Amino acid sequence: MTTGMEYWRWTESSWRSGMDWHGADIIKCGIDVGSVSSQAVIFADEHLLAYSSIRTGSSSPDSAQSALQAAIEETGINISDIDYVVGTGYGRVNVPFAHASITEISCHARGAHYMAPSGRTILDMGGQDCKVIRINERGDVIEFITNEKCAAGTGRGIEVFAELLSVPISDVGKLSLDVAETPQISSTCVIFAKSEAINLLNQGWSKNQVLGAYCSAMAERVYRLIHRIGLIKDFVITGGIAKNIGIVKRIEDKLGVEATLVKPDSQIAGALGAALFAGDLFLKQKKKAL
Predict the structure, then answer these.
(1) Which fold has domain 13-107+268-289?
(2) I need a surface site. Which of 98, 125, 147, 253 has the fewest CB within 10 A?
(3) Using CA atoms, how far apart are residues 122 and 127, in angstroms rounded to an integer?
(4) What would the DSSP string read from start to end of 109-166?
């Protein structure tokens, strides 16, 4: 399982509680099929039983299936044992074994609230979008805002820069802080930012300086998004961005607040929320059948 303030590694990660799930009243599951990564979360009653995170492939149905298999491996659970499944994320309508689908905004809000109940402003950066969600004390969505549909200021943007500079993506945040602050480069378009980075390297900038400049630009972009909706404490970060200390630190400095860390894993918020909704929908279905 990946832990700590590092940006995610593109390897499969998973966790299992090892508890005996036999005899549970409800086995519920959430599947979050994102544009870049996919997660599965399984609960036995109110206990988190297992979860996984994998790279999304070319097929959303296959990615959903692979995420679930990675989560249930070695638990002894079969798909037929799961009472209710909710799909969310970019590919939520393409989860073949899901009983329902729910928007990622609602699922991320509920998942974040479960992991950090005091949170009221949620920042989630996915592979292709960035969103800020305001929630109440119950985890209900009050208001939300998303960025423009561009890879700049998202997980994919960081991935592009890591590939360009031949830097392990897990090292981006740490290396970006290993320099004095530099002028920001463009984050309006990842293609323009990439070209600008190449020019800076040709001018003699170090890789760390370029990473620092790009992380600063991403933090500024996120700060403006949060400013538009307004910040109410506590501030919570989910998604891969929560594992990039270079961006987290810069956002915290701009906001003047420290982010509340979520456990067990910032990247499972969407799938976790979907699993909790699955439990509600299953009970509702059961009551109707009586």
Answers:
(1) Nucleotidyltransferase; domain 5 (3.30.420)
(2) 253
(3) 16
(4) HHHHHHH-TT--EEEEE-SS-EEEEEE-TT--EEEEEE--SSSTTSHHHHHHHHHHHT
Q: What is the mean pLDDT of the chain?
A: 88
Q: Cα dihedral sign for 56, 57, 59, 61?
A: negative
Select from 3.30.450.40, 3.40.605.10, 3.90.1150.10, 3.30.420.40 the CATH code of 117-261: 3.30.420.40
How many Cβ atoms from other residues are within 10 Å of residue 187's Cβ?
A: 24
User: Whole-angstrom Cα distance, residue 117 to residue 119?
Assistant: 6
What digits encode the pLDDT tens for the residues 94-137?
Answer: 999 999 999 999 999 999 999 999 999 999 987 778 899 999 99
| Rounded Cα–Cα distance for residues 128 and 200 (Å) | 25
Q: How many CB atoms lie within 10 A of CB 131?
A: 21
**Alpha carbon 61 to chain centroid, angstroms:** 19
Q: How far apart are CA 145 and CA 211, in angstroms?
A: 27
CA 214 to chain centre: 20
Q: Specify the range with the lowest mean pLDDT, choosing from 72-81, 181-190, 263-272.
A: 181-190
Q: What is the pTM of this model?
A: 0.89
Token pair for residue 5? 């303030």
Q: How would you class 173 by CB atoms within 10 Å of its CB: exposed for 0-12, middle for 13-18, buried for 19 or more?
A: buried
